[in-house]
Amino acid sequence: xxxxxxxxxxxxxxTVLMLIMIVMSLNTSTMAGLFRSDKxxxxxxxxxxxxxxxxxxxxxxxxxxxxxxxxxxxVIYDTRMDPETKQDVIQSLFRNYQDIVAxxxxxxxxxxxxxxxxxxxxxxxxxxxxxxxYRDQHPLPAGTPWxxxxxxxxxxxxxxxxxxFIEVPATESRQAFVLAANIKPARLAAVTTRSRGxxxxxxxxxxxxxxxxxxxxxxxxxxxxxxxxxxxxxxxGTAIEFVEDGVPMIGAFAPIANQALLATIQVPSSVxxxxxRDLLSNLKVVALLLFAVAAIASLIFAxxxxxxxxxxxxxxxxxGKGQFEVSVSSTSGDEIGVLSRSFNRMTxxxxxxxxxxxxxxxxxxQSEKLAAFGQLGAGIAHEVKNPLAGILGYAQLALRxxxxxxxxxxxxxxxxxxxxxxxxxxxxxxxFARQESGKMEPTDVNAVVDAALQIVDHQLGVNNxxxxxxxxxxxxxxxxxxxxxxxxxxxxAINAQQAMGSEGGSLVVRTRRGDAGTVIIEVEDDGPxxxxxxxxxxxxxxxxxxPAGQGTGLGLxxxxxxxxxxxxxxxxxxxxxxxxRFVVSLPGTRAQAA
Length: 594
Ligand SMILES: Nc1ncnc2c1ncn2[C@@H]1O[C@H](COP(=O)(O)OP(=O)(O)OP(=O)(O)O)[C@@H](O)[C@H]1O
Ligand SMILES: [Mg+2]
Prior knowledge:
Strand order of the largest sheet: 2-1-5-4-3
Structural class: alpha+beta
Bound molecules: adenosine-5'-triphosphate, magnesium ion
CATH architecture of the domain at 440-594: 2-Layer Sandwich
Strand content: 15-25%
Order of helices and strands: HHEEHHEEEHEEHEEEHHHEHEEHEEHHEE
Number of helices: 13
Oligomer: single chain
């Protein structure tokens, strides 16, 4: 059963993506963590700063009110001023200190004195009687020494004003007295509305919220009052983390007017996470983009990596099917490039070896074919040889017995000469089939060449063939049959002459040492050369391109038989001038008569 496996491209892609994801998630979580702790510290600092700032603002406002009230007190208890002037001064004070609507002063056990801003009361639709009634229902606290107290009270249904008490201490010229002012709350309330994200409140001395901005639970007031009263060291200027109605909060507080009031500020801790969450979702977009880019990049990279491997696989498959003509491109310098180059070298070698093998195979087939021819020819020759000798003998005998003018003498002469020719062919055939092996003796190849050329010299000369010899001087003498070698060279020379025709040409006979102690004989002409289709059959018996009666086609086959007999090789190749070059390679030692 074939096992499923991912292609290398997908593996690389997955690896790269996984690495990127790990790096990115580490990065993101670190960033988010850092951001969160940084943001937490920032929020804590901010709550403290805001609490102090709110308290300072309220403080300044209250101090201003106190100063204004003292100015009223000074006028009310001024003994040197006549009542009318006093009335005028008080009304002008109301005009200057617009937040103060009414003010009540009381000294010791004497009756309280109340002054009020007539215009403002009219605007609030509060009558003088209502105000006085309210005053009587809300007597000034007496007896306990206190500095300042602030409350929210309704002068009448629906008209809430701040009530600020102060005690003005005695001086040398004056008794101590108490002042209570009814103040419009808007400006103090505004102090709590400055921030947008934070819940701000101002608590009175009882811990009740005077003003607040943002949703504040019931627990809220108690919580802060307890904190402000406790001496457990929750110092001003320190941010506190606590849970209010199950919601984690960060908050801070600061006292106003010597602990008379308390400014508190708080924000759910989750604001920190909100920003971190925003950051994370932004990062997610960036991560997605990065991811896409990385995916594309690693796809391209993986393709570049796996493509050469795929090419190699495909090429290897083709080589497996015996197609050695493949080569893979190897542009890269990495291991795959090295592998590709090795692969190409391998196919080159395989190709070379294949060609050699094919050549060797063809040679083997050829040699077997020739051996079969030889056997057949030898069999026929053997059977025909004796009858031919008989025909020749009787023809010669008959010739001798006939008169010189006999008309059949001419015919008998033809029979004799043709029988001789047959005998010659038969002996050639037997030689090719190595049925008649010659005697081997130490032989000087150069001498054999000289002798052979001397014999054919006349025939070549009349046919305009120029002979040149290039004979190596250092050839070893080795065992060979000189007569047979001579015949070989003569065959080559005659064939060359015949190939070059009546115009003639040049013939070069060369001897030299070959590799591994061999002796090489080359016979080269500048005739038409041997065509590709003829080349394969040239050493076969009876193969001839010459017209019938001119060539038997046995010359080269006999040559082949002789050279094989000497343990050598013979072949034909193209000469540089376009003609044919016959090459014989003989072992320079004693030839092996196989
Ligand atoms: N030097 C050469 N140039 C061109 N072709 C050649 C050459 N030598 C031989 N051949 C070709 O090889 C054939 C066979 O030669 P081979 O010597 O065996 O027979 P032949 O010359 O035709 O006849 P034979 O030698 O028996 O008289 C020739 O017919 C010729 O076509
Ligand atoms: Mg010939």
